[in-house]
Design a protein that fits this description.
The complex is a heterodimer of chains A (281) and B (397). Chain A contains eleven helices and nine strands. Chain A has 281 residues and is α/β, with parallel strands linked by helices. Chain A has a five-stranded parallel β-sheet with strand order 2-5-8-1-9, with helices on both faces. A two-stranded antiparallel ribbon of chain A has the order 3-4. Chain B has 397 residues and is of the alpha/beta class. Chain B contains 16 helices and eleven strands. In chain B, helix 9 packs parallel to helix 16. Chain B is flat, with a radius of gyration of 30 Å. Classes of the chains: A alpha/beta (281), B alpha/beta (397). Bound molecules: adenosine-5'-triphosphate and magnesium ion. Magnesium ion binds next to helix 2 of chain A.
C-alpha cells in the first residue's frame, strides 16, 4: 500500500501510519486523541498532502451544531426578501447555506475532512453526525434532495478529551492515541522544523525541556508546540548552548521560560522549587 | 481465534464489539497490516480500542492471546486457555458477552453459525491470497480457526519468526500503563458525572429566532414580518458547593480541587463557600482571608434560592461535640450547635447531598460521620465516580 507515511516535515510513528491507512482503506473516520500540542491538527494536513486530496477543515466550538456541517436554512433572509418583494424568494434553494460536509460530499475528487476538537461541542454533536458519517449522505428537507458523497472523504476527528464520546460513535471509528514523543522522536521533530539548528543547543534544550516536563504538579506540561516556540526564541535571542548546559531545571528556572510555562501557577511552582532546591542543595 | 481474542478483551474490560471485530477483519482483508506482526498489533489496537485508558489492558490481552500460551492464571477464568474451544463454548461466550444490540446484529447477519462461517471464509480467502508470501498469517497447513476454536499453534505470524523474536514485543512494553485510570477520580470523570445534573432551559437574552412564533405572528400581521426571538437553551442547573478545608481535609485536597475545577467548567450557576469541619453561622469564600472576610451563613441562605442544589464536600471527621453542642467548634465560639445550622441549610435547600472523600467502608469507624449522615438523611456519597453518579441521580430527582 502507498498511503500515509512519516515525512521530513511530519514525524509519524508506525502505529499512526497503520491507523491512518486502515481508516483510509475502510473509509471509516479516524479519531485522534493525545495531549495538547502533539500534532493532532497538523496530522490532517499531512494526510491530505500525502494522499494528494484537498483538506476541508471544520473547527468545532462549544456552540457548533452538527446541522451546521450539513446545511442551514436561512429563514430570516427569506422572510426579509419576501417583505421586499424579491423574486428570489420563490425558490427555497436560494436560502439553503451549505456546510463543510456538503462541500466535501459534492466535490469531484476525494477530500480529507478534519473535524477538529469534536469534544468542544455539546454531547449531542457526535450522535447527530452518526448516520451522516456512516452513509456519507444526508437529506435536505427543505428542497427534498439527498446529498450523497461522490467520493467518500477521509474523515479525521480530533479530541482533547474534554467530553466522553458516545459508544455508538466510537464503534464506527478507528482510534489512535498520540503518545507524547520520546526523546529520539522529539529530536526528529525538532530537526524537521529547524533543520539547521545547532546540535549543542538542540541537545541542551531538549534535556531542559524533558526535565521541565518531569516536574511534578505542573498544571500544563509543555508539549511539542511549546518546545518549538521556545527553540525559536532561543534562536532569535541567539542564546549559546552553554547558557543551558548544566542547567538543572530543578535549580534554575530556564531562560525565556515564558514559552514553556504558559500559566502563572506553573511559573510560581518553578520559582518555589528552584528556591527550595537551592537552599537544600 | 479472533473471536476469542475479542472475548478475552471484553473479559479484561475493553468494550470491543462485533462491529469492530468485523472492521478489523475488513482491514486485514484490505491488506492494511500485511507484512508484520507489529502492524497487525497496531491495526487491531486501532480497530478494537477506543479509549486510551484501555490500551494497557489491550496490550496485556494481546500478549496472552497471541503469544499463546503463557497466560498467567489470573482473573476469573485464568485468561485464555490454549485449548481448542468448541463452537458451543464460543456461542455461550457470545451470549454472555454481547449486548442485546450486538446480539441483534449477529442475528441480522444470519445468526452465529453464519457469522463464524463468514469469518472462516474471510480468513481462508486471505490465506489463499497470501499463500507463499510472507504475509502475517502462516498457518502451518491447518485452519486458523481449527474446529471454530483455538488452534493451539496459535497464529504463527510472519515467516521470518526470528526477526520478531529479536525485538522486544511492542505490546510487552506496556507503554500505556499510566493511562489506565480505571478507578481514580480525575477531573474528566467528575465532569462526566456532574454533567448528568444538567437541566436545559431557555433563559437569558433572546438570541435565537423562534420560527413557529415568527410564522404565527407574521401570519397574524397579515404577512408583514414580525420576528420573534427566544433565549438560547442553557444548562440551567444551579449548584452551591460547600467545601470543608483544613485539618483532616488536607489529605483530600486534590480530590476536592478536582471536583471544584470540574464543577466550575460544567455549571454556569455555581457558587462556593468554605467551612471547617461543620458549617456554622459564618462561611467564607477566600481561604486566605478566612479570618477577616467571612460571610454570615444567613446571608448565603438569603442569596441563593431553594432552586439551588447544595453539595457539601467534607470528610465529616471531627469530634461529636462539633456537631452536637454549642461552643463545640474547634475554632471559635458557636452559640448554636453545628446540627442546628445543618438543619437550617438543609431546610432551605431541599435537594442536597454530602460527598465524602473517605472511602465508604471506613465511614463506620467514625462517630461523626454517622451523625452527619443522619442529618443528611443518608444522602452521603463517597467522592468516587460511582459515588458521584449516585449523587447526581439523587439530585436530579
Ligand atoms: N510528529 C510531529 N512532527 C512534526 N511536527 C509536529 C509533530 N507533532 C507536533 N508537531 C508540531 O507541533 C505543533 C502543534 O501541533 P498541533 O497544533 O497539530 O497540535 P494539536 O495536538 O492539534 O494541539 P491542540 O490539542 O492544542 O489543538 C505544530 O507546530 C506541529 O507542526
Ligand atoms: Mg489542534
Amino acid at each position: 500500500m502507498s498511503g500515509f507515511k512519516s515525512t521530513e516535515r511530519y514525524i509519524a510513528s508506525r502505529d499512526l501510519e497503520v491507523a491512518v491507512n486502515a481508516a483510509v482503506a475502510l473509509q471509516r473516520p479516524l479519531l485522534v486523541k493525545g495531549e495538547p500540542g502533539t500534532g493532532k491538527t497538523v496530522l490532517a494536513h499531512e494526510v491530505a498532502a500525502a494522499l494528494g486530496h484537498p483538506l476541508v477543515e471544520w473547527h468545532v466550538k462549544s456552540t457548533t451544531k452538527a446541522q451546521q456541517g450539513l446545511y442551514e436554512y436561512d429563514a430570516v433572509s427569506r422572510l426579509r426578501d419576501s417583505q421586499l418583494g424579491d423574486p428570489k424568494v420563490a425558490d427555497i434553494a436560494n436560502y439553503i447555506v451549505r456546510g463543510k460536509l456538503w462541500d466535501a460530499f459534492e466535490a469531484d475528487r476525494p477530500q480529507v475532512v478534519l473535524i477538529d476538537e469534536i469534544d468542544k461541542a455539546d454531547i449531542e454533536f457526535p450522535n447527530d453526525l452518526l448516520l451522516e458519517l456512516d452513509r456519507m449522505q444526508f437529506f435536505v428537507y427543505e428542497t427534498r434532495q439527498t446529498i450523497a458523497a461522490k467520493h467518500r472523504p477521509v474523515v479525521i476527528i480530533t479530541s482533547n478529551n474534554e467530553k466522553e464520546l458516545p459508544d455508538a460513535f466510537l464503534r464506527r471509528c478507528f482510534f489512535h492515541y498520540i503518545r507524547f514523543p520520546d526523546r529520539p522522536t522529539m529530536e526528529r521533530i525538532v530537526e524537521a522544523h529547524y533543520p539547521g539548528l545547532q546540535r549543542d543547543l538542540a541537545r541542551e534544550a531538549l534535556t531542559v525541556f524533558f526535565q521541565v516536563r518531569d516536574v511534578p504538579g505542573l498544571r500544563k506540561k509543555p508539549a511539542t508546540s511549546e518546545l518549538l516556540d521556545w527553540l525559536k526564541l532561543l534562536m532569535i535571542e541567539d542564546l549559546p548552548a552553554e547558557a543551558l548546559r548544566s542547567q538543572d531545571a530543578k535549580l534554575v528556572i530556564p531562560p525565556l521560560h515564558g514559552a514553556l510555562l504558559k500559566n502563572e501557577q506553573d511559573v510560581h511552582l518553578f520559582e518555589r522549587l528552584a528556591f527550595l532546591n537551592r537552599r537544600g542543595g | 481465534m479472533f473471536a476469542q481474542f475479542v472475548f478475552a478483551l471484553r473479559d479484561a474490560g475493553v468494550p470491543a464489539s462485533v462491529t469492530e471485530y468485523l472492521t478489523l477483519l475488513g482491514a486485514m482483508r484490505a491488506g492494511v497490516a500485511d507484512y508484520s506482526v507489529e502492524d497487525f498489533y497496531y491495526l487491531s489496537r486501532s480497530a478494537l480500542v477506543k479509549d486510551e485508558r484501555h490500551l494497557d489492558r489491550f496490550d496485556r490481552v494481546f500478549g496472552q492471546v497471541f503469544r499463546g500460551l503463557e497466560a498467567p492464571a489470573e482473573g476469573e477464568d485464568g485468561g485464555t486457555a490454549p485449548r481448542a474451544l468448541p463452537e458451543e463454548w464460543l456461542r455461550r461466550m457470545a451470549e454472555k458477552h454481547l449486548t442485546p444490540e450486538e446480539r441483534a446484529q449477529v442475528e441480522a447477519l444470519g445468526g452465529f453459525d453464519t457469522l463464524m462461517e463468514t469469518l472462516r471464509q474471510r480468513l481462508a480467502e486471505q490465506q489463499g491470497r497470501h499463500q507463499g508470501g510472507s504475509k502475517w498469517i502462516g498457518t502451518a497447513g491447518t485452519s486458523p480457526f481449527g474446529a471454530y476454536g483455538y488452534n493451539p499453534e496459535g497464529v504463527r505470524i510472519g515467516q521470518d519468526t526470528s526477526r520478531h523474536r529479536r525485538a522486544a514485543k511492542v505490546w510487552d512494553k506496556r507503554e500505556f500503563r499510566d493511562l489506565d485510570d480505571g478507578v481514580e477520580l480525575g477531573t474528566r470523570n467528575i465532569k462526566l458525572a456532574l454533567r448528568r445534573l444538567r437541566r436545559f432551559a431557555r433563559e437569558g437574552a433572546a438570541t435565537e429566532l423562534d420560527m413557529p412564533g415568527t410564522i404565527r405572528a407574521t401570519a397574524q400581521n397579515a404577512g408583514s414580518l414580525d420576528l420573534k426571538m427566544v433565549p438560547e437553551r442553557h444548562n440551567a442547573v444551579k449548584v452551591l458547593l460547600f467545601l470543608d478545608v483544613g485539618g483532616s481535609m488536607d489529605d483530600h485536597v486534590r480530590a476536592s480541587e478536582e471536583l471544584f475545577s470540574a464543577a466550575r467548567s460544567e455549571f454556569k450557576h455555581l457558587a462556593f463557600y468554605y467551612f471547617h469541619n461543620c458549617p456554622y453561622e459564618r462561611v467564607w469564600q477566600h481561604n486566605a482571608r478566612r479570618r477577616d472576610a467571612t460571610i454570615p451563613t444567613e446571608q448565603v441562605i438569603r442569596t441563593y434560592g431553594p432552586d439551588y442544589r447544595a453539595i457539601f464536600v467534607g470528610d465529616a471527621t471531627m469530634s461529636p461535640y462539633e456537631i452536637a453542642s454549642p461552643g463545640g467548634s474547634v475554632e471559635h465560639w458557636n452559640d448554636e450547635p453545628g446540627a442546628a445550622w445543618m438543619a437550617r441549610l438543609l431546610g432551605h435547600w431541599r435537594r442536597s447531598a454530602w460527598l465524602n472523600p473517605v472511602p465508604r467502608a471506613e465511614w463506620g469507624f467514625t462517630q461523626s460521620v454517622g451523625m452527619v449522615r443522619h442529618l443528611m438523611e443518608d444522602r452521603m456519597y463517597p467522592l468516587t465516580p460511582g459515588g458521584l453518579d449516585e449523587m447526581t441521580r439523587e439530585l436530579s430527582r
